[in-house]
Amino acid sequence: MLIRYGTDGNGKLIKKANVYTSQEHLISNTNIxxxxxxxxxxxxxxxxxxxxxxGAVRDLxxxxxxxxxxxxxxxxxxxxxxxxxxxxxxxxxxxxxxxxFGSKIFEVSTFRSNAEGSVGNEFGTIDEDVLxxxxxxxxxxxxxxxxxxxxxxxxxxxxxxxxxxxVIPLDRIFIEDPVRMLRAVKYSATTHAKIPFSLRHKIISxxxxxxxxxxxxxxxxxxxxxxxxxxxxxxxxxxxxxxxIYLQPAATALIYENxxxxxxxxxxxxxxxxxxxxxxxxxxxxxxxxxxxxxxxxLTDWKKEAKDNPVFTExxxxxxxxxxxxxxxxxPVRRELEYAVKSILNELGLSGxxxxxxxxxxxxxxxxxxxxxxxx
Length: 376
Fold this sequence. Notes:
By secondary structure, the chain is an alpha+beta fold. It contains 19 helices and 9 strands. It has a 9-stranded mixed β-sheet. Helix 13 crosses helix 14, helix 15 packs across helix 18 and helix 17 crosses helix 18. The chain is elongated, with a radius of gyration of 26 Å. The N and C termini lie far apart (about 95 Å). About 35% of the residues are buried.
């Protein structure tokens, strides 16, 4: 292990970070997306520093395949934009650059200062940027050129010990961004990292802060969970820390009220996790069926419904509306929720084929004609 030194305010030489070599971290660049490596090389060739940062580094260390490769640099967004024609600057306050390679998007951010806390937008140095990272396991910087990991906060140690430790002080971390609570339970579930008592207590006592988060952002976080191979573990942890009520209030209320509903709901989350493992590209509508199945089953006596009304008619529209309200504040794509509702109704013995819909209209027309004739 190497040491990175710097100086304090008085010019005194001090230790800044541990530096781990390839023999210690065992990351292979063959597991890194070639386009991410190209971005790093082009930034370096232009005279800037650049690292892979965050969850991708964590996943590479533990042997998981990263879904995304975030990159951080000392180049400003405007300079990054000049280097990459295939890029666009996003964000109003917190400006980032998306570098696009076909269907792939790489997020490139500039080192930020922590002078305004962890959510400020002033540019800074890597020494400051690391103090804005949420948890130590996500605060590692990997240089694929020297094949070294820069660790300012003991992240390597915490990954090996399976401990989730915040970088930002507990009195600020969730006030500045309540969504970090959801990330905490997600990281704990996906990395098998233990949440220390003090952190767990802070999450539970701060859970109400999620009520301030916009529905669009909560939807984004819930969709990540629904797509995860650890969906069951994340949702179970979110229930245990009082967070799930802000993601799915209707489902949480039923879970609190009915032990049978809770058992069945969590079994469906296990099945969802297995689906994500075996069919990662399954459409969202198929995944949503696991989220709403127990609720739909509880709506009515479906055996009687199927016998009295073996086709969709008005029952589909009402069920869809009920499910739409049930999953709030999540706002999934309409056609995907429609797919989920139709799949469950079909499973219950109701069918919505176009042929049967035509038959419904024909029967309604015949019934109306007969009624008119009798009235005459």
